[in-house]
């Protein structure tokens, strides 16, 4: 391949990709679903492979780009018009927390564990499961939350109330297993934990899906 042919094919590939991206719309970037991500990777790979293949020229590059771009456009069009196609290629939002309770079934279906859920909640400013009334896992992997009435605005400052110390909630039990490091760092031991569980009518740690401790509010426990 000569420098001139490389330059021409590179410019053609750049302009073609720009055109296809504009044609498909902003969702390819701002609302990246799993299917969109894989499609974008394959799209770039097609151009790269053709660009550095001595036996492929502009015709082959144009065919690869516009064939794949055409398929993506048809899928984008069909997902806007047909609900079943939309669910097939984009998926649908999943209700992870309902009325303050974490749905273990929904988490398992979405391949989501407690640590990932807590990370997503913290990114939305909710450091405790108890603050969230509803949480929806969106198709792009982000989460949308509706806080409980006690944790919504107005703030204490709005009501001119005195400041209070802020404490981060600590997970004590996840999926029936005690997180002993968290228990000890909080200044507690097994006797304290056993007593707390008995007070809440739990006979075994294995009965607990999530247990979270927050200073001033005590231990919050959700069964399976």
UniProtKB/TrEMBL annotation:
The chain crosses the membrane at residues 6-25, 32-52, 58-75. GO terms for cellular component: plasma membrane. Keywords: Cell membrane, Membrane, Transmembrane, Transmembrane helix. The keyword Transcription does not apply. Residues 81-213 form the YetF C-terminal domain. InterPro entries: DUF421, UPF0702_alpha/beta_dom_sf, YetF_N. Residues 5-77 form the YetF-like N-terminal transmembrane domain. It comes from the Bacteria. The keyword Transmembrane helix applies. It is found in: Cell membrane. It holds the Pfam family DUF421. It is a multi-pass membrane protein. Belongs to the UPF0702 family. This is DUF421 domain-containing protein. It comes from Radiobacillus deserti.
């Amino acid at each position: 391949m000569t420098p001139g042919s490389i330059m021409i094919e590179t410019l053609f590939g750049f302009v073609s990709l720009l055109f296809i991206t504009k044609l498909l719309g902003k969702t390819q970037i701002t609302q990246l679903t799993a299917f969109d991500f894989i499609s974008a990777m394959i799209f770039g790979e097609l151009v790269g492979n053709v660009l550095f293949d001595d036996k492929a020229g502009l015709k082959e590059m144009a065919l690869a780009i516009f064939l794949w771009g055409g398929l993506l456009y048809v899928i984008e069009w069909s997902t806007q018009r047909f609900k079943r196609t939309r669910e097939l290629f984009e998926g649908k939002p999943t209700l992870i927390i309902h009325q303050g309770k974490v749905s273990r079934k929904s988490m398992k279906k979405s391949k989501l564990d407690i640590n990932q859920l807590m990370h997503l909640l913290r990114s939305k400013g909710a450091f405790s499961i108890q603050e969230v009334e509803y949480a929806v896992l969106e198709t792009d992997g982000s989460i949308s939350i509706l806080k409980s009435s006690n944790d919504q605005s107005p703030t204490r400052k709005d009501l001119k109330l005195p400041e209070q110390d802020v404490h981060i909630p600590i997970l004590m039990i996840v999926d029936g297993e005690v997180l002993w490091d968290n228990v000890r760092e909080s200044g507690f031991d097994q006797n304290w934990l056993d007593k707390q569980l008995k007070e809440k009518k739990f006979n075994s740690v294995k009965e607990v899906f999530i247990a979270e401790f927050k200073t001033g509010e005590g231990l919050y426990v959700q069964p399976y």
